[in-house]
Amino acid sequence: MTKPDSAAAFHALHQPGNILVLANCWDAASARLAEESGAKAIATSSASLAWCHGFADGQALPKDVFLAAVREIIAAVRIPVTVDNEAGFSDDPDEVVKFVGALGDAGAVGINLEDGKRTVALHASKIAAVKKAFGKDIFINARTDVYLQKLVAADKAVGESVARAKTYADAGADGIFVPAVIALDEIAQIAKAVSLPLNVLALKGVAPVAALKDAGVRRLSTGAGPGRAAYGAAFRAMTQLYSEGRYDAMFAEMEGLGNLNALLTRS
Q1: Looking at the DSSP assignment, which residues form a beta bridge with residue 42?
Q2: Phi/psi-derived region of residue 48, left when phi > 0, alpha when psi is between -120 and 50, beta in every other case
Q3: What residues form DSSP beta bridges with 113?
Q4: What tens digit of pLDDT does each residue of 80-137 get?
Q5: % of the chain beyond a pLDDT of 70
Q6: Whole-prediction pTM value?
Q7: CA neighbor of 210 nearest in space, from 11, 16, 15, 21
Q8: Do 161 and 182 meet the contact criterion of CB atoms below 8 Å apart?
Q9: Radius of gyration (Cα) for the chain, nearest Å?
Q10: Which of 104, 149, 163, 160 is nearest to 131 (CA)?
Q11: How many CB atoms lie within 10 A of CB 113?
């Protein structure tokens, strides 16, 4: 699949009536596992990707290491890849464009771009700069952290999320990501009020995929969940090994997972 074809295919996965489910990955093996499990696209997790390289989440991972990891993931799969680009690794829109260009050259067809505690105007300027530079070649999933960072009082979170979503849509965003909204009625309100595909994050208390789809959600991300699950399984196995001298947990966690060589052998 060529880059334009891949970009168009990725955009199409966000059409009304569809919900794109993304088990966020952090390396080539996890991406291949997602592809083998039935994923229509691959999304990276900035947290899990940082952890596996020995760094904390939050743009602490050196950009060259980040980019090399993304290249490995893209090379391992045949489906579109979107990258959690955090806040673009810069607050200079021109620098954000340069880095997104490098991701695009590596084969990425989408990015997440988060506002965090930065101003709405700054985030909108980053979105506008990326959209002007790359058009439809890069799907911009504009993340607003109103809920995640508790930027406003709880009773104002829906309204603030919608207001930011509209501003980011006007700047050129292709999708809106509102992580940490839990209540299904609030999710439905946001989905109804914004014109772009709504992305929510799978957290405890979030409704199942079918209910989210009925509420108007068009994209579900799992964030660091799969990475934490994988490391949790390893931690349980290691703890039992060192505390009890037994291997039961290790073999239980391996159940059903074959040798990864078959998934990663390149023809």
Answers
A1: 81
A2: alpha
A3: 142
A4: 999 999 999 999 999 999 999 999 999 999 999 999 999 999 999 999 999 999 999 9
A5: 99
A6: 0.95
A7: 21
A8: no
A9: 19
A10: 104
A11: 24
Mean pLDDT computed over 191-208: 98
- In order of 45, 49, 98, 157, 170, the CA distances from 62 in angstroms are 15, 11, 15, 33, 31
Q: Which residues contact 239 (CB under 8 A, 6 or more apart)?
A: 249
CA dist list (Å): 109 to 44, 122, 197: 12, 23, 16
Predicted pLDDT of residue 32: 97
SS3 at position 253: helix
Residue type, 64: D
How many beta carbons lie within 10 A of that of residue 166, not counting itself? 16
Confidence check: pLDDT of 45 > 70: yes
Mean pLDDT of 226-233: 98
Non-local (6+) Cβ contacts of 225 within 8 A are 23, 24, 202
